[in-house]
Structures are given as structure tokens and as C-alpha cells.
Amino acid sequence: MAIILVNAIGLLIILAVIWWFWLGPKRSAGQLVSSAGKLQILVKDGVYEPDRIRLPAGCAVTLYFRREDPSPCSEWVLFPDLEVSAELALNKATPVEIPEAEPGEYPFNCQMQMYRGTLILE
């Protein structure tokens, strides 16, 4: 009986992790920021907030990542398609320069790809 209980609890934990990182509620359209605006992204509790960011295409912009999660996974933010990365300071807003790019969706994530987000250029 104890083996069944332990396995059931383990399965529930696995399902909760899958739901949290991959199947959880998604943000609708994302937050729109003008090219001159400042946007602060909060890095906390395993997520970027907001995790979907809409910006106008064709202009460089600076995003500010505020890391409140001390876990090592949250130390870096990577924009692989834009070849941009930055080490995030704990409890400080770290500026990340995003260069001009073509319209499209550009994923961003931590180095372990547990924190995930999307930059949408329109």
C-alpha cells in the first residue's frame, strides 16, 4: 500500500511540473511597448512576467529584467535567434539591448530553458 501511495504522489508531482512549465495558462496577446517605452520583466518563481512581449519591428529597444529568484537557472537570459544574452543581477533591473530585427516571434529563455518567453516583433 505504501508503494502505491508513494508512486501516486510522485506521479502527481511530475504532472504538476509538466503543467507549470508547459501546459499552464498562457498570456493572451502580450504586452505592447512603444519603441521609446521601458518594459521591466520580472524573473520570479520559474516564470518571466510578462512572458509575451510585443514590440514594433525595425527599432532597437532596451528591456529591463529584474531577477528576484536566487536560483542558478535564473542567472541568464538568452535570445538565441537574436544572438543576445545577459547575466541578470539579483534584485536589480538589468538592461538587455535588443537590436533591430525583422518582424516575427523570437523565443527567449534561461540557460536551462525552464524559464521561457516570446518576443513578438510586429
TrEMBL record:
It comes from the Bacteria. Pfam families: Cupredoxin_1 (PF13473). Keywords: Membrane, Transmembrane, Transmembrane helix. The keyword Membrane applies. Residues 14-120 form the EfeO-type cupredoxin-like domain. The chain crosses the membrane at residues 6-23. InterPro entries: Cupredoxin, EfeO_Cupredoxin. This is Cupredoxin domain-containing protein. The lineage of its organism: Bacteria, Pseudomonadati, Pseudomonadota, Gammaproteobacteria, Cellvibrionales.
